[in-house]
Amino acid sequence: MASLWVLLRAQGVAPTNNHAERGLRFGVLWRKTSHGTDSDHGKRWVERSVSLRQTCRQLGQSTFGVLVDAVTSLFQGRHPDLAWLY
């Protein structure tokens, strides 16, 4: 509840989440033009991949590089390097 009114106390805090919504708009448009997916598993994949794409863009990272590291880590039985998130 304390975080609800931060926009009134802190300089530069936007009152809406339009920036985040614009970043995920790509996924919404894709879903509408491709008629979405037929399974819950497919829906989760789209949500997560679009979110990853936008996070990588905001942090200046290569989405492909992050995915390659994640899949390589999976096959090697180790945790992926998440230092790029911080």
Tag the structure with descriptive keywords.
single chain, 86 residues, mainly alpha, 5 helices
Question: Count the helices. How many?
Answer: 5
- Outline the biggest β-sheet: none
Distance between the termini: 26 Å
Can you give the helix content as a percent range?
Answer: 55-70%
User: Helix- and strand-based class?
Assistant: mainly alpha
What's the order of the H and E elements?
Answer: HHHHH
Strand content: under 5%
C-alpha-based Rg, rounded = 17 Å
Uncertain stretches of 5 or more adjacent residues:
none
**Number of β-strand runs:** 0
Query: What's the overall geometry?
Result: extended
Integer average pLDDT: 83
Describe the structure.
This protein is mainly alpha-helical. 63% of the residues lie in helices and 0% in strands. It has five helices and no strands. It has helices at 6-9, 18-23, 25-34, 40-59, 63-76. The longest helix is centred in the middle third of the chain and has 20 residues, at 40-59. The chain is extended, with a radius of gyration of 17 Å. 1% of the residues are buried. The model has no long low-confidence stretch (mean pLDDT 83).
